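Troubleshooting log. The previous structure file for this entry was overwritten by mistake, so regenerating from the original sequence record. Sequence copied from the archived sheet and checked twice against the printout by T.R.
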Amino acid sequence: MTLHGVRASHDWLDIRMKVIGYEPIASDHLWRQSCIKLGDAIFTVIRHFQLNPPSILEITDINLRRLQESLSLQQQHRQSRLAGSASTANSSVSSSQSHSIPTMETVHSVSDQSVETMDDEVDALIPPVPTSFTVIENMPLSELKALLNDEYAMDNMIERISEVARLKELKQSIEKANLDAAEENLSRETELAVLQTELDSLMKESLIKVNKYRELDGKRNTLTRPPDVQETIRELNHAKKEAYQESEEMAEDWVESGGEGMSDFVKKFMEIRFQYHTRAAKAERLGMTM
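Regenerated output below.
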């Protein structure tokens, strides 16, 4: 949950305007354990900011800035009508209020939105170096010399400069945000270690399965690969010769045995001869395709 549209300073806000002071939304783990409805959480945060307003450093949203300026102008006109001759004084007052705290109805609390702050955005938060120091310019020469010789007084004067105070607030906000982020990371160290162990185990299992897949895929390619034509022709010719030799031997054996059982002999002889001619025909047709 972040505060949108302004750059402010508050104990519940870090440098990115992320709400860090409300414990139930400090982490995903605490949020799940809280069992609080989202609307109730937003109401609690808004209520806290209403009772303990943040210090608005800058209004970053253009529409919100225009609305604030419009409200300031309306207030100026109202004071001008009431005060009459005191309009000049009232104008200066309303001008100083142009950077007052905007109403909570115009400040949007954005839930479940991660805000990434780049280096240039962080640099934009640093106040510019003043071009002049009115306190020093209006200081008598004697006091200025005394200030230069008194290191403690010089430090006190520097501490009272608004830009220095803003820098300290920015520094503290950055330190707190870094500390909170570090503590959140450390709180998940054990969980991260367990997940890393599970990931390593899954990676090893996946590598074993991938290697097994490649082995089986290689066997599949070998079994389904179209046979080599020349090798097939050689095998057919070899099988053809075997069938021819078998039929010839069968005929010789039948003749030597006295030629009995002619019908059985003819049937078996024709089957073997059919295989012979079939293999010869296949070998010839494959040879014609080359």
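The radius of gyration is 47 Å. Archived copy saved in two places this time.
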